Amino acid sequence: MIELVRIDERLLHGQVIVGWGQRLDLGYYVVADDDLAASEWEQELYAGGLPGSARAFFLTVDEAAVRFGQLDEHAGRGALLTRTTGAMRRLAEAGALEGRAVNLGCLGGAPGRSRALDYVHLSPDEVEDLRAIAARAGPVTARDLPSSPRVPLEKVLRDLDG
Amino acid sequence: MTSPRVTGVVVAHGDVAASLVGAVETISGVRGALVPVSNEACAPRELRRRVEEAVAGGPAIIFVDMASGSCAFAGHQVLRERRDVAVVTGTNLAMLLDFVFHRELSLGALALRVVGKGRKALEAHEPAGPPEGDGRGGTDAGSGREDP
Q: Would you tell me the crossing angle of helices B44-55 and B70-81 to the nearest 10 degrees?
């Protein structure tokens, strides 16, 4: 069952694999990303960081939307990851995330983005994506690690610099 | 004509890169051979830009803290686009110390050399057995188990 639905532009990195993976005992990771689904070398590099027994599935966003039910029934506990708000929005608008809480992880600083939290920086388009996700999924909250407090989307948006 | 000296770009989480570079400079007295890059609070594309900037004219070895994750990913992206760059993962102080004294070597030879030095620095020393007369095995120490 998919226990964690997360937007994190670093995808399979330490916070996800160690921080969340160990706490939730995650055994599989579904990465919904059109570019990554077509790039074997990147898949290899990302999957190289997984603990021995864990598996990663790299799908396009459309594939992930269509196969969400099947992925959710996979044995063990899993996570669904996108690296962009836009990809998660597509999943939400395809109806795959109804009632599902969406976790906002690392979105780092870059030109065109404003800071909301140390680990969340958003552009105006990304703000719009998040509002659209919240309208079609369960609650959207920022939380980098399980030990950190949940920050509701409305507070994240209120705290955006500028 | 001598070949250009290799630059080291240390890419790591948080303050690790700056700390490693600072330690190497303190121990070796060699300054300017290593450039620290942190992934702190930056998007992947920004991290890649920082790495590209640090590599500059090359040749360079990109020293990454872990074999996967954002730092490794940025290193591999640059590696795929340049022929004067190598990536070394699992970076430790021993390999960086060796690196700063052998920057005149070719990129490939130097990358292999520092990986060897880094591996050689990895050792496990098992704890000694329990003190005589202790009567308890060592395996429960620190387990948090309370005696009745």
A: 50
pLDDT tens string A92-109: 999 999 999 999 999 999
Q: Nearest residue of B to residue A10 by CA position?
A: B70
Domains delineated in chain A: 2-158 (3.40.35.10)
Min Cα–Cα distance to chain A from B13, Å: 10
Residues in B closer than 8 angstroms to A45, CB to CB, are: 68, 72-73, 76
Domains assigned to chain B: 12-120 (3.40.50.510)
What residues of chain B have any CB closer than 8 angstroms to a CB in chain A?
13, 41-47, 66-70, 72-73, 76, 80
pLDDT one-digit tens code per residue, B37-92: 999 989 999 999 999 999 998 899 999 999 989 999 999 999 999 999 999 999 99
Task: Judge whether A126 and A83 are in contact, CB under 8 Å.
Answer: no
Contacts of B145 (CB under 8 A, 6+ apart): none
A49 touches chain B (CB under 8 A): yes
Whether residue B140 is predicted with pLDDT greater than 50 in this model: the reply is no
pLDDT, tens only, A125-137: 999 999 999 999 9
Q: What's A109's DSSP letter?
A: B
Instruction: Judge: B70–A118 Cβ closer than 8 Å, yes or no.
Output: no
